[in-house]
Amino acid sequence: MTRGNQRDTDRAKAAKKQAALNKSKAKESNTSLAKRKEADAEILRAKQKKRDEEKATEAAASAAKTIK
């Protein structure tokens, strides 16, 4: 083998780097996670409501065209 201990040192270096990344990430508490999920859900509900209203007006407009 020509690599010697390079593989071992690379593994140790990668493990150290991964540990530093995991340590630096801010952990979300359960309450903030729940708040964020609820806010995201509310945004999606608003988008869906807008999309449904647009479809309803489009359907009414097409129905009015067919009646004429």
From TrEMBL:
<dbReference type="Pfam" id="PF04419">
    <property type="entry name" value="SERF-like_N"/>
</dbReference>
<dbReference type="InterPro" id="IPR007513">
    <property type="entry name" value="SERF-like_N"/>
</dbReference>
<feature type="compositionally biased region" description="Basic and acidic residues">
    <location>
        <begin position="1"/>
        <end position="13"/>
    </location>
</feature>
<protein>
    <recommendedName>
        <fullName>Small EDRK-rich factor-like N-terminal domain-containing protein</fullName>
    </recommendedName>
</protein>
<feature type="domain" description="Small EDRK-rich factor-like N-terminal">
    <location>
        <begin position="1"/>
        <end position="38"/>
    </location>
</feature>
<feature type="compositionally biased region" description="Low complexity">
    <location>
        <begin position="58"/>
        <end position="68"/>
    </location>
</feature>
<feature type="region of interest" description="Disordered">
    <location>
        <begin position="1"/>
        <end position="68"/>
    </location>
</feature>
<feature type="compositionally biased region" description="Basic and acidic residues">
    <location>
        <begin position="35"/>
        <end position="57"/>
    </location>
</feature>
